[in-house]
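Amino Acid Chain and Its Fold in Token Form
===========================================
Structure side: the spatial fold of the chain, written down as a series of whole-number tokens.
Position: the record begins directly beneath this header, with no further notes in between.
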Amino acid sequence: MSVLYIGVIGHYPPSRFDEEKACHLLNDAFDNVITDHPDADEVWVVSRHVDAGISAIAYRIARERHRNEEYRSWHTMGITRAHAPEYPLFDVDVSRIIGDEEDQGSGILLAAIDVLVRIGTSKQLLEETEAFAAMRGNDRVYAYELAAF
């Protein structure tokens, strides 16, 4: 049995983006990750603990895959700061509450995952991707461009 933690970072409000394209990109990313890690029979999607933006789409895809895949289980883990979140919380399987600083959340998320899926190219997303690649290597990064407007 092999457990795989997929970190997902991307746009969230107030940024707007093409949600249909984001869904397609996330499904493509998850397919590519699984192709590269075929022995993973338990997959955790780890992201910001919000029911908004890319995180919410990734969580919904994980739930759908959990219902439809007989040989692999999919789960959700949300990471949030200790103070009250500014967006509704997604009903994740596991929630990790950390300190109040934004960079604490990013660092904890990046340390908790095996691979990173990035949807978008904002400055913060690129910095987080660079930090993860420095820790784990570029071959564990699945990066996709998606314009925000």
User: Anything to note?
Assistant: Residues 16-97+109-144 form one domain. The chain has a mean pLDDT of 92. The beta strands are 2-10, 40-48, 73-81, 94-98, 115-119, 141-144. Residues 19-36 form the longest helix (18 residues).
